[in-house]
Write a structure and sequence with these properties.
This protein is of the alpha/beta class. It has one domain (3-252): Rossmann fold (3-Layer(aba) Sandwich). It has helices at residues 42-50, 74-80, 97-107, 115-126, 143-157, 173-189, 201-207, 227-235, 238-249, 256-261; strands at 3-13, 16-27, 31-35, 55-64, 67-68, 82-85, 92-96, 136-137, 161-165, 193-197, 211-216, 219-224. The protein has a six-stranded mixed β-sheet with strand order 6-9-10-3-11-12, with helices on both faces. Strands 2-1-4-5 form a four-stranded antiparallel β-sheet. A two-stranded antiparallel sheet has the order 7-8. Strand 9, helix 6 (173-189) and strand 10 form a beta-alpha-beta unit. Helix 3 runs parallel beside helix 5, helix 5 runs parallel beside helix 6 (173-189) and helix 6 runs parallel beside helix 7. The chain starts with a strand and ends with a helix. Bound molecules: adenosine-5'-diphosphate (ADP) and magnesium ion.
Length: 262
Amino acid sequence: MSTLEIKGLVASVAGKQILNGIDLVVRSGEVHAVMGPNGAGKSTLSAVVMGKPGYEVHSGQVLLDGVDLLDLPTWQRAQAGVHLVMQYPSEVPGVDLTEMLSEAYTARGRDTSELAEQVSAEAERIHFPADLLHRSLNVDLSGGEKKRNETLQLALLTPKFAILDELDSGLDIDALRDCARRVEAATHDSNLGVLAITHYNRLLEELHPDHVHILVKGRIVASGGPELADQLEIDGYEAFTGGAEEAAAEPTGGSYDDLFAL
Ligand code: ADP
Ligand code: MG
């Protein structure tokens, strides 16, 4: 059993504070959905957890079984067991999927002798066309093919936690179902913990979240069970944005009197 704990995370990008104190705990086997309007900071959260360059962390921790990932370079965060499925997967000309996975396996001290068979079996399971396996990573793939490819990598690397940044964006219904079901299977088969960033209930119908959080203006303004996603479908984000404004208006520490005490 592992725990990914995000504690009091405050971060900015390009001089603008985007995350205003995020607290979240995900345990092995759990699925947490993070929903929020455009620009709420969802992708920023995933970027900061993985250590994408250009983001400045002002305070807080991201603890994987008690070890602060923020002290580690991105590759060590991945090796420690956190995997990001990117909203817009990068194209890597000249490197094919098996080569990339072979490097990742080797870095994790895993045997690569059966990798080709494992890749083929997984490709078949996720309906990723075998003739695309030898193409450069994500180059000239459709939106759906890219996300199937990303899900295949996730399935083979068996991380402890996966962050899915809009796995559903750019997917048709069949691809969405295949990818979501594969991730759902990993939560049972290898006790994968999931932080699924999404706009849509359709993904959650396949992924069955245990917890749903609503992120508005860099804060989690509501947390609940799957019923929260249903409520969101009816009420929209507007019902939750008032709370974020009130929270943002609160002084973050001490009282105004302290300002004059300086
Ligand atoms: P979401 O994923 O919830 O739609 P993002 O985390 O992508 O939101 O963006 C949150 C805010 O941060 C937006 O206002 C966006 O313009 C800004 N932002 C994100 N990345 C950058 C960047 N690299 N440079 C400048 N602004 C950024
Ligand atoms: Mg985003």
